[in-house]
Amino acid sequence: MTLLRVQGLTAGYGPVRVLQGIDLEVNEGEIVVMLGANGAGKTTTIRAISGTIPRAGVVEFDGHGIVKATPDSIVRKGVAQVPQGRGTFPELTVEDNLRAGAYVRRRGSDVAADIDKWFAVFPRLAERREQKAGSLSGGEQQMVAIARALMSRPRLLLCDEPSLGLAPLITKELFEVIARLNREEGLSVLLVEQNANLAMHMASRVYLLEAGIVVATGSAEELSADDTIRKAYLGF
Ligand SMILES: Nc1ncnc2c1ncn2[C@@H]1O[C@H](COP(=O)(O)OP(=O)(O)OP(=O)(O)O)[C@@H](O)[C@H]1O
Ligand SMILES: [Mg+2]
To answer: Domain check: are 137 and 50 in the same one?
Structure first.
């Protein structure tokens, strides 16, 4: 089943149009990876889907148009975003960051249960629950950003370069968590990643972006079997 359908999506900043008509889909239970050079429009695509910048075209989630919806209501519908860079409230503790992620939900004991759940997934964060997020290491902050997004209980996680600036081992851990959530809880994921090699291992399908359009799409195997694509975009 198609969970997210994007067609002819255009968006930009002021007079500058960055996305020239993006078509992409995420089916229920898929991890879809978006690759592309710096400035290709990956972050802009994520922002246009989450509603944090003006956009036009078709964006449907679970069969309903969301192109006119506010960012808040899009989160409520089940789409959570982990922004590029560290999407935490630096002055709040780790625990309060997680609690803030549940703001779209009704308060209740299940929020506390979810916090415990994410602390079990990220034991590093449990040990630092009273620490201000701004004083955590980069990798720990990235974990907070992901756990916070998951506190809204999304069906689709939009994840923009979660590995940025992280040590290989931490990146591996993070990706293992994402793959596990996908496997065990059916979480669908749209993942932006620079490290093609790493991301393609877990991808159901891949989209290659260049200058605001999709220039190639297929399974990881299909794309890496194409010499031109492999050399030009995948760097191996
Ligand atoms: N806030 C902004 N105002 C004006 N232009 C912007 C803004 N954000 C991005 N751009 C421009 O839009 C284009 C696409 O940027 P985007 O951030 O989507 O690229 P990206 O594919 O995510 O790149 P990277 O891999 O470096 O994160 C770039 O040319 C960039 O300069
Ligand atoms: Mg980006």
So the answer is: no
The answer, as to whether pTM is greater than 0.90, is: yes
CB 65 within 8 A of CB 72: no
E-strand stretches of 16-170: 16-27, 31-36, 55-61, 64-65, 79-82, 156-160
Give the pair of three-digit tokens for residue 99: 């609690």
Domain count, the chain: 2
Give pLDDT tens digits for 57-74. 999 999 999 999 999 999
Mean pLDDT within 180-186: 94
Closest-approaching ligand to the CA atom of 11: 1
Domain limits for position 112:
87-153
Of the residues 9, 10, 13, 209, which should be mutated to test ligand 1's pocket, given the most ligand atoms within 8 Å of the CB? 13
Neighbours of ion ligand 2 (CB under 5 A): 42-43, 84
Going by alpha carbons, the residue nearest to atom 17 of ligand 1 is 43
98 closest CA partner among 139, 156, 146: 146
User: Is the domain of 149 the same as that of 220?
Assistant: no
Q: With CA atoms as reference, report the closest residue to 187 among 162, 219, 150, 146.
A: 150
Ordered strands of the 188-192 beta sheet: 79-82, 156-160, 188-192, 31-36, 205-210, 213-218
Closest C-alpha to ligand 1, atom 29: 39
